[in-house]
């Protein structure tokens, strides 16, 4: 955590953290810890697509086909 509290070599407080875990308990407990800690240190949490300036319609795929979904998830879930 100490490393991400500071600024990067360009003098900017920015961090991209990706966490993929196969243990369900860890996912639920650690994810909330990461969110709470990032917010406590003033970070704005955004989706990876926002960081990459990727159009929102590219963010979601059908897990079986890889196609774009017919309907987008509700906005509160995005």
What does this structure look like?
By secondary structure, the chain is an all-alpha fold. The protein folds into 2 domains: 1-45, no CATH class; 46-78, no CATH class. 32% of the residues lie in helices and 0% in strands. It contains 3 helices and no strands. The protein has helices at residues 2-5, 24-40, 48-51. The longest helix has 17 residues, at 24-40. It is extended. It starts with a helix and ends in a 27-residue tail after the last helix. The mean pLDDT is 76.
Descriptive keywords:
78 residues, 2 domains
Give a quick rundown of the structure.
With 78 residues, the chain is mainly α. The chain is built from 3 helices and no strands. It folds into 2 domains: 1-45, no CATH class; 46-78, no CATH class.
């Amino acid at each position: 955590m100490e490393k991400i509290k500071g600024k990067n070599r360009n003098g900017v407080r920015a961090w991209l953290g990706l966490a993929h875990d196969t243990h369900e308990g860890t996912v639920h407990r650690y994810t909330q810890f990461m969110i709470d800690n990032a917010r406590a240190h003033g970070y704005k949490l955004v989706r990876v697509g926002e960081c990459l300036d990727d159009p929102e319609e590219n963010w979601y795929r059908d897990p079986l086909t890889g196609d774009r979904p017919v309907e987008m998830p509700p906005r509160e879930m995005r």
